[in-house]
Amino acid sequence: MQLSKIHATHLVFDCYGTLIDWESGILNALRPFLLSQGCSLSDQEILELYGRFEPIAEAGDFRIYRKVLAQVMRLFGQHFGFQPTATSEMLLAQSIQDWQPFPDTVPALQRLATRFKLNILSNIDRDLIIHSQAHLQVRFSQVMTAQDIGSYKPAPANFHYALQKMAVAPAKVLHVAQSLYHDIAPAQALGLRTIWVNRRKGKTGSGATPPAAVKPDWEINNLADLADLLGC
Fold this sequence. Notes:
Largest sheet: 6 strands, parallel
Strand content: 5-15%
Shape: globular
Number of strands: 6
Order of helices and strands: EHHHHHHEHEHHEHEEH
Number of helices: 11
CATH superfamily of the largest domain: HAD superfamily/HAD-like
Structural class: alpha/beta
CATH class of the largest domain: Alpha Beta
Radius of gyration: 17 Å
CATH topology of the largest domain: Rossmann fold
Strand order of the largest sheet: 3-2-1-4-5-6
């Protein structure tokens, strides 16, 4: 079915990796720090290690994302044999305020907002996403964080929470995300229609997100394509 014929009213976006260029943000924070610790790695190696460490840090009892990122820093230290200081443990969390949207994000969101209710479902803390909302320059109907829910995607609870919070039937929702692992697979499992934003097209590996064997309902390269396909 063509996207333009879908009778959806709500778009739910992942934020980091989909709207915000989180891989550049991660690399800008980690690359110089790791070099200072004597670790000379390619960008791909850094991202793949991050993608391995983050789910480990999110496992078990819920902890806010600041603490998840601090644990990621400790896992880098364990892997390479250094002990991060209390200050360096906060490096990733503090860098989030500087992470920027992809060039296509803001213009596309402004177009999409003329027709749809825009929402965010993100593995983040409430105080951290405020900085990103300012960069995105549009009003979202709901901004739903892992801190609100008490779990991290790909947990089904996050998607159930979103549907309840928006008070909308799944048939009226399009879930838009870059991560097959965190978003597309669990959203599809709950019957949501999914749009994969393939931000890594032409690159090897899955970057900062773990791989997942799932076929999205639609695949696009950027959000400008989404606005075009939805007739905005």
